[in-house]
Backbone:
């Protein structure tokens, strides 16, 4: 576009799943495709931003002109984000970070022995909350994938994680979200009086949704 509302800004965006190893051949992960995060990175670049994409394992090709850091685990994703975040104006946490990792990764392939087995899991760091808790935090945007009470949980997450904006979608509708090429979301933010505001983004391609999210962000900045 002829307008470049994000010129001069550095955006750091996480995308995709994380992969938490169990042993040398197995892992815990989720169905995130990375499409929404990659669409945000491509559109942010198009709108004039300098973009760093921190990506978990996906099938996608990084957008041209976007610095892409490939990671596997949540710990690696946090370390990669921290290596670039000091210069960021905006952080968008779009990755589906695994909430838990293995307490211990087995050094050798686990053998089947018993009828039952248990894996001990420990909580992963919350990358978005960690960035938002920095001393001079960038403007932080989160995503909330919910199957019920979408507005309630999104508003709660906005406040609890100290975000500037959250994009919420209803993942119980399988025609949108996850591996889909289209999406529909509701954006939530607080106005200068602290009153919750919201804007529904009608079903559209992830590229179009990404552009609308980024343009709303520039409105919040002004
Ligand atoms: O609490 P919940 O996982 O639903 O929050 C989702 C938001 O937080 C997303 O923006 C996601 O990228 C981010 N997140 C994160 N690190 C985690 C968990 C979630 O950055 N460990």
Residues:
């Amino acid at each position: 576009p002829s307008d470049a509302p994000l010129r001069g800004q550095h955006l750091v965006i996480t995308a995709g799943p994380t992969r938490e190893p169990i042993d040398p051949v197995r892992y815990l992960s989720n169905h995130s495709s990375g499409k929404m995060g990659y669409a945000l990175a491509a559109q942010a670049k198009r709108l004039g931003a300098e973009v760093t994409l921190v990506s978990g394992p996906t099938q996608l090709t990084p957008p041209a002109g976007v610095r892409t850091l490939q990671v596997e685990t949540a710990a690696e994703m946090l370390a990669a984000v921290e290596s670039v975040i000091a210069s960021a104006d905006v952080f968008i946490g779009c990755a589906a970070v695994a909430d838990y990792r293995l307490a211990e990764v087995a050094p050798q392939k686990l053998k089947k022995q018993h009828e039952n087995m248990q894996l001990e899991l420990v909580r992963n760091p919350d990358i978005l909350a960690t960035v938002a808790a920095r001393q001079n935090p960038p403007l932080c945007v989160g995503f909330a994938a919910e199957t019920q009470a979408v507005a309630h949980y999104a508003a709660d997450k906005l406040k609890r994680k100290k975000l500037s904006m959250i994009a919420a979608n209803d993942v119980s509708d399988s025609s949108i979200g996850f591996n889909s090429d289209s999406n529909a979301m509701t954006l939530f933010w607080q106005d200068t009086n602290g009153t919750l505001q919201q804007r529904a983004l009608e079903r559209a391609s992830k590229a179009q949704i990404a552009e609308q999210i980024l343009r709303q962000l520039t409105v919040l900045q002004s």
Observations:
- The pocket of cytidine-5'-monophosphate is lined by residues 14, 74, 93-95, 97, 124, 126-128, 142-144, 157 (CB under 6 Å).
- The chain has a mean pLDDT of 94.
- Helices lie at 35-46, 74-84, 127-132, 150-160, 206-221.
